[in-house]
Design brief:
Blueprint: H1 4-20, H2 33-38, H3 50-57, E1 65-66, H4 91-107, H5 119-125, E2 129-130, E3 133-134, H6 138-147, E4 153-154, E5 187-189, E6 199-201, E7 207-216, H7 219-229, E8 232-236, E9 248-249, E10 258-268, E11 272-278, E12 290-294, E13 304-312
Parallel strand pairs: 9-12
Antiparallel strand pairs: 1-10, 2-3, 4-7, 5-6, 7-13, 8-10, 8-13, 10-11, 11-12
Length: about 350
């Protein structure tokens, strides 16, 4: 059952759509709070109180700041596109993974080849969402859970994005196995199948863990968390973004139906304060995949999540398990569905 407040907000949102003539058939990519809690996800959950500790010790922060250009260094990782090779409502995973990738790059001081965690691993094994919607809080709660076992999220190079989940029948998805088993966590394919080179699920593979996570809301908390530790993922109303081209969006909204990552903020004399937001619709969209969102607009300040990187595989750490081209020396023994 929806709360009375939620029902009122939904009614007002529908009325606003009618008044403004906005598109009403855009499916929300976020599950309701009731659905999330039934999945075991803690609503606005926190692993520790480290964010509050940061707030207490935070100094004054600048009026303009972005991790995409901090001290002349770009700490932002790639802009992704959740809509190819077919449509998939996995914004919740993209927002979380992109913010985490940025924080790993920050931890590495911008050195080395960027680490890009696998969105598909989260879709296959996270149990916190699918191509039909997900959660803001769930991705980092799942990753924290598996991190405690010593293994984190795999990298894109061993599990590329397919834009498929078990409940999706878009494009070729009905022909794809997305169950959570070794082959769908990290894999390699040694040669063409007619040459006797089958694909191999890997037991050892580059991965990234997290050591902490939490949820925040409000301009002040967002700015301090971003400035101190890095980008965050946040809920937003996607309706006004559909035909966005450039500029600062200042539209008021009553719903959250999409997830993005916030990398910084800016101010300008005419438009005032705005957030610098990376979407997951590709670089053809908006300002090379980004959008500037005005203070208090699109409900972007209502519900955000953050995660602190734990251990990760990187060249400078010399912590790679060296697998053969065909993966034979790293092959997973158990290929059955994993319980995570």
């Amino acid at each position: 059952m929806f709360s009375s407040k939620a029902c009122v907000n939904l009614l007002l949102a529908t009325m606003l759509d009618c008044i403004l003539g906005t598109k009403q058939n855009l499916q929300s990519e976020l599950l309701s709070r009731e659905q999330q809690e039934s999945m075991g996800i803690l609503w606005r959950g926190n692993a520790t109180n480290s964010h509050n500790t940061i707030l207490l010790g935070m100094k004054q922060i600048p009026s303009n700041f972005t991790w995409c250009s901090k001290g002349g260094v770009n700490y932002c990782t790639i802009s992704r596109n959740q809509h190819i090779p077919q449509y998939c409502g996995s914004c919740w995973a993209h927002g979380a993974v992109s913010a985490l990738a940025d924080r790993i790059k920050i931890a590495r001081k911008g050195r080395g080849i960027d680490i890009n965690p696998s969105v598909q691993h989260m879709l296959n094994c996270g149990n916190v969402g699918s191509c039909h919607g997900g959660t803001i809080d769930g991705p980092y709660q799942w990753l924290y859970h598996i991190s405690k076992s010593g293994t984190g999220i795999s990298y894109e190079t061993s599990n590329p994005y397919l834009a498929c989940s078990s409940d999706s029948n878009e494009g070729f998805c009905e022909h794809v196995d997305t169950s959570c088993k070794a082959m769908n966590v990290a894999r390699t394919c040694g040669s063409f199948s007619e040459e006797g080179g089958p694909c191999t699920g890997l037991k050892s593979y580059p991965n990234a863990t997290i050591s902490d996570y939490g949820a925040i809301s409000g301009k002040n908390a967002m700015m301090k968390e971003i400035y101190a530790r890095g980008p965050i993922s946040c809920g937003i109303d996607a309706h006004p973004l559909l035909n966005y081209e450039f500029g600062i969006i200042k539209q008021t909204s009553l719903r959250i139906n999409h997830v993005v990552s916030v990398v910084g903020w800016g101010t300008c004399a005419k438009e005032g304060f705005y957030w610098i937001v990376r979407n997951s619709w590709g670089e053809y969209w908006g300002e090379m995949g980004f959008v500037r969102v005005g203070e208090g607009a699109l409900r972007i300040e209502d519900h955000c999540a953050w995660a602190e990187p734990g251990s990760f595989t990187a060249a400078e750490l010399d912590n790679q398990i060296h697998c053969h081209e065909g993966g034979d020396n790293c092959e997973a023994e158990e290929m059955a569905e994993l319980v995570v």
